[in-house]
Amino acid sequence: MDKIFLPHLQKIEPHAHFTFSFPIIESSMGRKYYAKVGSLSEREQFVGEAESLRAIHNAAPGLAPQVLAAVGPDDFAATSERPYFLSEYRNITSLASNHKAGEELGMRLATELHVYKSTMGFGFHVPTFCGATRQDNGWHQTWEECYSAMIGNLLAKLRDKGRFSELCTKGEQVRSKVIPFLLRSLEVEPVLLHGDLWSGNAGIDNLSGQPVIFDPSSYYGHNEADLAIARIFGGFPRGFFEKYHEHLPKTEPVDQYELRADLYELYHYLNHTVLFGSSYAGSALRKMSVLLGACA
To answer: Residue 2: pLDDT above 90?
Structure first.
């Protein structure tokens, strides 16, 4: 693996020597790097992660580890070669008990990441992976179309498992009734989202003390959707949400904010059902019942 990364490292630090102890590479000049190589079947995952991180770096420099070299979406010559990824190394600790860093993260999301707009519409230019689940992405002209396609993708995966018939039936009702009811009239622009922002994908950079996010599954969508999985699993200081909405107020109509939050949380409950099975199906069904009842 050394041969994959050495040419890239020598461009960054021409006069340094490098010690390889994967996934960490350390240079004689004191810099550290994070490196990994995947199997041929993981190419899309590597591309999706690298393109997501590059977009986040453009929107909010320093908020996520900077990608220094990686297989690209147009790297057709590399389709027969194992995908690789090289980024700066960050020593990251938990965000949960750090109120100041939580507020800083909320502010940076609201003022940088979630105001970085797409000119192509809603979606993303490459597939990304929320956990192990492939998000097909592509581009959509409206947020309603984009989110309906995302939910539809998960329902198709559940149908393929040959179970969850009630979940799939109710899920299609959510697509036909709830999503148009809650999303069609929204005046929102496609802004960059992390896509999988739970506490396990956020932390504090030990060196700088600043918040950092990683392992993204990015797309351009409604900013409120990026708060959903943080609401489900917690682990963010209370000030995170308060500071976020201080800088980026809730979308009108505000009285539907909680219903939209339920709809956006539904994506992650469905995805966890795809990934981990029936233990999350009950939570998804309860969300659907609330949404269908409110939008009847």
So the answer is: no
Tell me what pLDDT residue 28 has. 97
pLDDT of residue 1: 77
Torsion on CA atoms 114, 117, 121, 126, rounded to nearest 10? -80
Tokens, residue 252? 């009108």
pLDDT in tens, 231-255: 999 999 889 999 999 999 999 999 9
Contacts of 167 (CB under 8 A, 6+ apart): 155, 158, 270, 273, 281, 284, 285, 288
66 close to 182: Cβ distance less than 8 angstroms: no
- For 249, half-sphere exposure in the C-beta direction (CA atoms, 13 angstrom radius) is 5
Q: Dihedral of CA 258/263/265/266: which sign?
A: positive
Catalytic residues: 196
CB 157 within 8 A of CB 133: yes
Q: Cis (ω within 30 of 0) for the bond into 253?
A: yes
- Pairing state of beta strands 211-213 and 202-205? antiparallel
Q: Is 98 helix (H, G, I), strand (E, B) or coil?
A: coil
Average pLDDT score over residue span 204-228:
97
Find, among 117, 113, 126, the residue nearest to 191 by Cα: 117
Q: Which of 43-47, 92-96, 106-110 has the lowest mean pLDDT?
A: 92-96
* pLDDT, mean of residues 116-125: 98
User: Is the pLDDT reported for residue 77 higher than 60?
Assistant: no
The SS3 call for residue 293 is helix
Burial-class residue 176 by CB neighbours within 10 Å (0-12, 13-18, 19+): exposed
Contact 27, 36 (CB under 8 A): no
Q: What is the distance between the alpha carbons of residues 47 and 60, in angstroms, rounded to a whole number? A: 20
Helices and strands of the chain, counted as H and E runs: 10, 14
